[in-house]
Amino acid sequence: MFKVFVKDVLIDVAFFSTDADPLFGTPSLLEKPGINIPINQDYLYLILNMQLEGRDDFFKIWVGKNEGVSIAEAMRGFNLPRPNSHDTAANIITKLGATLEKVVITDLIKNTFHASITLRPNGPVVTLDSRPSDAIALAIRLGAPIFVTVETLKKISNDGFNDLSSLKGSMEESSDGEMKPEDFM
After folding, report:
1. Which domain, by its residues, includes 89?
2. Closest Cα partner for 71 from 84, 59, 82, 58?
3. Which residue from 72, 127, 131, 171 has the least number of CB within 10 angstroms?
4. How far is CA 52 from CA 29, 60, 70, 135, 166, in A?
5. Total domains in the fold of the chain
6. What is the pLDDT along the chain (185 residues), one digit of tens a residue?
7. Is residue 12 assigned to a domain?
8. In a domain, 184, yes or no
9. Is residue 9 part of a domain?
10. pTM, full prediction
């Protein structure tokens, strides 16, 4: 696994066609241009620019606007007058005496990232499946490290969109499938 952090939260919009989707009757996604044309706020989404610690390499995770705003607020130390769902989850973990040990971005399946949350309650360690946006929001609030698996990095590096070019040779040369920080120093 390789440690990562959220470098920034970017705003983008999705433009939809006016043709209804034959199955659901909803507009279908056409493209993702920059945010320079006014559009209904419901089509806003945010991008987490995830950077590998100690390197210039990065990858992007698209998240919903509410999750992205929650992550940006936590990154900036902004406290809402009332807790949002991520604040509430962080409070539950803390009040129960558990700690969030780590978050791992575990896979990329059909253009959807998957993640896990590892908690240490007053007993055995528990690992839970999670959306990456929720897991990252909790990690930032509770000061837990965020990691990405080698297998996920390999899938990301082949998508033609993310900049992981300097890792490609190192990932192919790894004999045990696990990257270690010293592999990149």
Report:
1. 2-174
2. 84
3. 127
4. 30, 11, 21, 17, 11
5. 1
6. 888 888 878 766 554 444 444 433 444 333 334 433 334 445 567 788 888 888 888 888 888 888 988 998 898 888 889 999 999 999 999 999 999 999 999 999 988 999 999 999 988 999 999 999 999 999 999 999 999 999 998 888 766 556 666 665 555 444 344 444 443 33
7. yes
8. no
9. yes
10. 0.74
